[in-house]
Design brief:
Layout lengths: L2 E10 L2 E11 L4 E6 L5 H9 L6 E6 L2 E3 L4 H7 L1 E4 L11 H5 L6 E2 L2 E2 L1 H14 L17 H13 L5 E5 L7 H16 L3 E5 L3 H7 L2 E6 L2 E7 L5 H10 L3 H14 L8
Parallel strand pairs: 3-10, 3-11, 6-9, 9-10
Antiparallel strand pairs: 1-2, 1-4, 4-5, 7-8, 11-12
Helix pairs in contact: 5-6
Length: 263
């Protein structure tokens, strides 16, 4: 297991944002993290990415407990987060954005040739073929292309887990398909992805696992093949699973056991 969270809790004053969260993220898989507004999704990814460390609980990375207290700690482990704002500079071109803050130098000068070559390769590895030139200003790119650039920038740092916050929000059909393809390319390269999304159609199109949050806890998680849209919606809105309850009732009835509260 690449990432394993156990008993993660976080409070802000009297508000309990996360309560005993357990989450498993296997290597090379796409895990969808879903839940209503205020369910705790953003707080959880901030705990994983080192922006807001948890108050208690364990973060286990490749079988070893780690302490992720800063974003630098997360980056050092191989965890990259692509937020909704993408953290790209519209006035700079793709190469400049990809290498911002860690530019390649050669004889004291910018090594433009190497940076351009590695930028092209990073985009090609994600099957991004719609970008006209790596010297294109980011402000001129479509929403899907911008997402692709942000992801390519993340994985250029040798990330083994990429967290994406609402990557298809406000995108059209074509651009959404492009972003979902990029996510699939990451998984095919053995990179784990956590996708936060309100769009269940996207979730069922790209994810292999799902984790549903409700009021700061995990209401259900597992292989997406064990879930359908109705079951996920029920967990999102009520935190409960009527199918699991019904199965428990049938099991208890079949074994002759009594349910709590029944005479």
């Amino acid at each position: 297991m690449l990432l394993r969270l156990r008993g993660i809790s976080k409070s802000f004053g009297s508000v309990q944002a996360l309560s005993q969260v357990d989450l498993d993220v296997p290597a090379g898989t796409v895990t969808a993290l879903v839940g209503d507004n205020g369910a705790g999704k953003s707080t959880l990814i901030k705990a994983i990415s080192g922006i807001s460390p948890p108050d208690s609980g364990e973060i286990v990375w490749k079988g070893h407990e780690v302490h992720v207290r800063t974003p630098r700690d997360a980056t050092a482990l191989g965890i990259a987060t692509v937020y909704q704002d993408l953290a790209l500079c519209d006035n700079l071109d793709i190469v400049q954005n990809m290498w911002l803050g860690h530019e390649r130098l050669r004889h004291g000068l910018l090594d433009e040739t190497t940076m351009e070559r590695e930028t092209r390769q990073a985009l090609a590895d994600l099957s991004v073929v719609t970008v006209r030139s790596v010297r294109q200003v980011v402000g001129s790119l479509s929403g899907g292309q911008r997402q692709a650039v942000a992801v390519a920038k993340a994985v250029m740092g040798k990330a083994e887990l990429v967290i994406m916050d609402e990557p298809t929000a406000a995108l059209g059909v074509t651009q959404t398909a492009m972003v979902l393809d990029v996510i699939g390319q990451l998984a095919s390269r053995g990179i784990a992805v956590i996708v936060i999304s309100h769009n269940l159609a996207d979730v069922f199109a790209v994810a292999e696992r799902v984790a549903v949050m409700y009021l700061g806890r995990i209401a259900g998680q597992g292989s997406l093949s064990d879930y359908d849209t109705q079951r996920v919606v029920e967990l999102i809105t009520t935190g409960g699973d009527s199918r699991a309850f019904a199965a428990g009732v049938a099991s208890a009835g079949g074994s002759g056991a009594r349910l709590p509260g029944r005479d």
